[in-house]
Amino acid sequence: MPGPDLPLVFDAPKRGRPPTHLADLDRAQRTEAVRKLGLPAFRADQLARQYYGRLEADPTAMTDLPAAVRATVGQELFPTLMTPIRHIACDDGTTRKTLWRLHDGTMLESVLMGYRDRTTVCVSSQAGCGMACPFCATGQGGLDRNLSTAEIVDQVRAAARAVADGQLPGARRLSNVVFMGMGEPLANYNRVRDAVLRITSPAPEGLGISQRSVTVSTVGLAPAIRRLADEKMQVRLAVSLHTPDDELRDTLVPVNNRWSVEEVLSAARYYADVSGRRVSIEYALIRDINDQPWRADLLAKRLRQHLGHLAHVNVIPLNPTPGSEWDAAPKPVEREFVRRVNEGGVPCTVRDTRGSEIAAACGQLAAEG
């Protein structure tokens, strides 16, 4: 099925396609793939149980697979998609950022975070980003390419395996996935949708994480938001709004020149109505740019009008990037902004930020790597 009608500026540069991996394939495709290798059909289910159920991506460790075929299976169905270059931890080890090198040398990031009540991985959907938001480290670097379904899924599998192996203190299992890493998920629509299905389907079809524990973030590609609603999934939608007025948003989020605040919030309401789920409104609070009291009031007013009780605002203290002119709003300004949005009838909280000392803003580590 073709993707939504997006302007060509969002297209990823043409690069070598990642090799096909088991996680790119649905059940029928897996069965056909093992048959082409001369293996009985039941091996497809066996391999899927290893990958999704046991979180094993190395066929040499799959002892239920005949030793004579492990190398071939590895080459054809488990090519190396990502190689970890660096792990950096902070917050007493409960936040771990990983820099990955992909098969073509492209750099990628994911972040694993342990909280008291959940363990979350923040994954990337593109290498780089074409949305060009000026305060975002990834946006400053531009778009490299779209990630394949398997490259997205394997970030989640690797995180789940790290948790299972005890690499995150106090964490027992991976419970949540957020598409808030590098890239605009809805600009890589088909692969992100397929990745969500792999992540949320029960083993051996997928990793078995609840759809309600998956969040897909977007800067506001309105047609794609509506299309995601029509998928009838239960994932949480997060809209990176960052300001309630078109004049400023045209600068902060250039895609606003294509789809206005009105159109984005209308699409978000459609998603909320179809899914029955509250929409998260992401708001990076930037000193002297979008932190004025009147913008807090206008934000509450517009969200009440469009989303009613189906909105929650996450205020994000900006994590400045090296050399950037952008800085976080002072704490008293932040508190007043949150107070006014709440007083305006819309729930508003400050997001728990993690890992500023390990270049946790998306794209920072890749830029340094």
TrEMBL record:
PROSITE patterns noted in UniProt: RADICAL_SAM
Cofactor: [4Fe-4S] cluster
Record localization: Cytoplasm
Pfam families on file: Radical_SAM (PF04055)
UniProt binding sites for [4Fe-4S] cluster: C129, C133, C136
Keyword list, A-Z: 4Fe-4S, Cytoplasm, Disulfide bond, Iron, Iron-sulfur, Metal-binding, Methyltransferase, rRNA processing, S-adenosyl-L-methionine, Transferase, tRNA processing
Root EC class: transferase
Region annotated Disordered, chain positions: 1-22
Gene Ontology biological-process entries: methylation
Principal subcellular localization: cytoplasm
Annotated S-adenosyl-L-methionine binding sites: G183, E184, S217, S240, L241, H242, N319
Molecular function as annotated in GO: methyltransferase activity
Catalytic activity line of the entry: adenosine(37) in tRNA + 2 reduced [2Fe-2S]-[ferredoxin] + 2 S-adenosyl-L-methionine = 2-methyladenosine(37) in tRNA + 5'-deoxyadenosine + L-methionine + 2 oxidized [2Fe-2S]-[ferredoxin] + S-adenosyl-L-homocysteine; adenosine(2503) in 23S rRNA + 2 reduced [2Fe-2S]-[ferredoxin] + 2 S-adenosyl-L-methionine = 2-methyladenosine(2503) in 23S rRNA + 5'-deoxyadenosine + L-methionine + 2 oxidized [2Fe-2S]-[ferredoxin] + S-adenosyl-L-homocysteine
InterPro entries in the cross-refs: Aldolase_TIM, Methyltransferase_A, RNA_MTrfase_RlmN, rRNA_lsu_MTrfase_RlmN/Cfr, rSAM, rSAM_sf
The keyword Methyltransferase appears for this protein: yes
EC number from the UniProt entry: 2.1.1.192
Task of the protein: Specifically methylates position 2 of adenine 2503 in 23S rRNA and position 2 of adenine 37 in tRNAs.
Membership in a protein family: Belongs to the radical SAM superfamily. RlmN family.
Record's miscellaneous remark: Reaction proceeds by a ping-pong mechanism involving intermediate methylation of a conserved cysteine residue.
UniProt-recorded name of the protein: Probable dual-specificity RNA methyltransferase RlmN
Organism, as annotated: Williamsia phyllosphaerae
Gene name as annotated: rlmN
